[in-house]
Amino acid sequence: GEDVEQSLFLSVREGDSSVINCTYTDSSSTYLYWYKQEPGAGLQLLTYIFSNMDMKQDQRLTVLLNKKDKHLSLRIADTQTGDSAIYFCAEKRPGSARQLTFGSGTQLTVLP
Amino acid sequence: ETGVTQTPRHLVMGMTNKKSLKCEQHLGHNAMYWYKQSAKKPLELMFVYSLEERVENNSVPSRFSPECPNSSHLFLHLHTLQPEDSALYLCASSQQERANEQFFGPGTRLTVL
User: Fold this and answer.
1) At residue A28, what are phi and psi to the nearest 5 degrees?
2) Among A2, A43, A51, the residue to mutate for chain B (most B Cβ within 10 A)
3) Could you list the pLDDT tens digit for every one of the 112 residues in chain A?
4) DSSP A97
5) Beta-bridge partner residues of B59
6) How far apart, in whole angstroms, are the C-alpha atoms of residue A49 and residue A31?
7) In this complex, is the C-beta atom of A92 within 8 Å of any C-beta atom belonging to chain B?
């Protein structure tokens, strides 16, 4: 399909790991991104991965990329209440020098 | 001020009003973007300015009119909007050659009555 797809909601307990999944559309996309949006705020770039990588780790965040299945995931270790936000997956398709294609976002709720 | 700022943060307007949204970036970037964010929908890219020239216009109705007087400022002029235009309008900026790293402002929550 044409859309970047994400589940709308995810709830986890504080201290557990969260895994947010995304299916993107173009196997030749060059970069894939995770953005975080806290209530009342704009989008904040969390991390991105280049398409020739399988995994990228940055402190509590781990990004996994499966190019064959066009699947991207974001794992947050030891999830905290401050991680509650909407997480957007985005892809940069070849030929679109400036345009990112976003998913609808996953609302992560961290329960105490 | 640092980063990307937007004013106003909230705006309520009637369908016959004319208003403007303002965005300012303090990052030394030379590309700026307007996005529309509606609930449970992907972000929609509306306009892109690079070096103060409009380089993308994604089939946005003419009741939305962008203006980029310099590389630090971006406006979105609104005229005779419809209720379905109610959304969060996000501004972003980037270095032209690193367009993949876009920095977003907090958005303007627009309600059209």
Assistant:
1) -100, 10
2) A43
3) 467 899 989 999 999 999 999 999 887 888 899 999 998 888 998 999 998 899 999 999 999 999 999 999 999 999 999 999 999 999 988 776 667 889 999 999 999 8
4) S
5) none
6) 6
7) yes
